[in-house]
Design a protein that fits this description.
Structural class: alpha/beta
Number of helices: 12
Shape: elongated
Oligomer: single chain
CATH architecture of the largest domain: 3-Layer(aba) Sandwich
Number of strands: 12
Bound molecules: D-malate
Strand order of the largest sheet: 8-7-6-9-10-11-12
Order of helices and strands: EHEHEHEHEHHEHEHEHEHEHEEH
CATH superfamily of the largest domain: NAD(P)-binding Rossmann-like Domain
Helix content: 25-40%
CATH class of the largest domain: Alpha Beta
Strand content: 5-15%
Largest sheet: 7 strands, parallel
């Protein structure tokens, strides 16, 4: 039988706020536990709080196994690895960090746009391989180009503001966007249908959440609507892209290149993307800056400690304090 603990941490979530929480509460710190579903179910049975990043599958079964759970805290923005409905039925607070890493992801997006436009990773490999053929590295400027932002939440907005500083025109597509929202008033993107955005943008960046509604949205046909000189960037969720369709579109030169920080399966199998100079691949590092991780870890620890002390979570997704299980009503 497992020893009772206050908090179970199943991924590598570290930093000063975590250390401070570990001094105050009994924390089971098991950064590899997400890989072992059976041990995970055993361990969660003894915990009042579960802290995860994006690799722990927090399924209905796992939530049932966690009979003492009061809060599930997600160190990150996306909740696609958590069955939030099952957590709600079980009366468990779900908290996340929806804004804490937005600046880092927006900055990475700009970095990828510049990397694609100036072929920075390819030029770096060239010089390290002994080359100096700078005539082969003519790039393009961002200035005067059009950026299409698909998904205009916090990250889309921050990306748009930075693109404007580079002198870009910004289009946005987001069916849930309030045209009178502060972000629209401030960034002043031109709101368009997706097809128009795809056909007229020089850079297209995806900032959509994962899930049923967005899965496979970027199909081969949609890549074919882009300009042949356009670049595609995905720092959101890999499942939004039909990767076979993207490879085919790149082979047929329907677009000029792509940068992917996220993949449909993570880590991905070695595949044709890795052999292409027109594709930049990163290991899902959008939120991985010291600043963003400090904010993220501080937020989840604050919410866990608040809930376990009988107070309200701040960054809750469903409700701020634990409820009775629905089946106990
Ligand atoms: C997020 O959802 O916050 C990011 O994708 C980062 C992560 O999952 O760790």
């Amino acid at each position: 039988m497992s020893t009772a603990i206050d908090v179970l941490v199943t991924e590598n979530i570290v930093g000063e706020p975590m250390e401070a929480m570990r001094r105050r509460l009994a924390v089971g710190f098991e950064p590899e536990l997400w890989k072992k579903p059976e041990q995970l179910a055993d361990a969660v049975a003894a915990a009042k709080a579960l802290v995860v990043r994006n690799q722990t599958r927090v399924t209905e079964d796992l939530i049932r196994a966690g009979g003492e759970l009061q809060i599930i805290a997600r160190a990150g923005a996306g909740l696609d690895n958590i069955d939030v409905e099952a957590a709600g039925r079980a009366g468990v607070v779900v908290a996340s960090t929806p804004a804490q890493n937005a600046v880092s992801v927006a900055e990475l997006t700009l970095g990828l746009m510049l990397s694609l436009a100036r072929r920075i990773p390819e030029a770096d490999r060239h010089v390290k391989g002994g080359g100096w053929a700078r005539q082969n590295f003519y790039g393009t400027e961002l200035f005067g180009k059009t950026l299409g932002v698909v998904g205009f939440g916090r990250i889309g907005f921050l990306t748009a503001m930075r693109a404007k500083a580079f002198g870009m025109d910004v289009l946005a597509h987001d069916p849930y966007l309030d045209p009178d929202s502060l972000t629209v008033i401030q960034a002043r993107p031109r709101l368009t249908e997706l097809d128009e955005l795809l056909a007229t943008s020089d850079f297209i960046t995806c900032h959509l959440p994962g899930g049923k509604q967005t899965r496979g949205l970027f199909t081969y046909q949609r890549f074919c609507r882009m300009k042949p000189a356009a670049y595609f960037i995905n720092v959101a969720r890999g499942e939004v892209v039909d990767e076979t369709g993207l490879l085919r579109a790149l082979d047929e030169r329907r677009l000029a290149g792509a940068a992917l920080d996220v993949r449909s399966t993570e880590p991905p199998q070695a595949d044709a993307f890795g052999r292409r100079d027109d594709v930049i691949l990163l290991p899902h590092i959008g939120a991985f800056t010291h600043e963003a991780q400090h904010r993220v870890v501080a937020s989840v620890c604050r919410d866990v400690e608040a809930v376990l002390a009988g107070n309200r979570a701040t960054n809750y997704f469903n409700f701020p304090t634990p409820r009775k299980r629905v089946d106990e009503h």
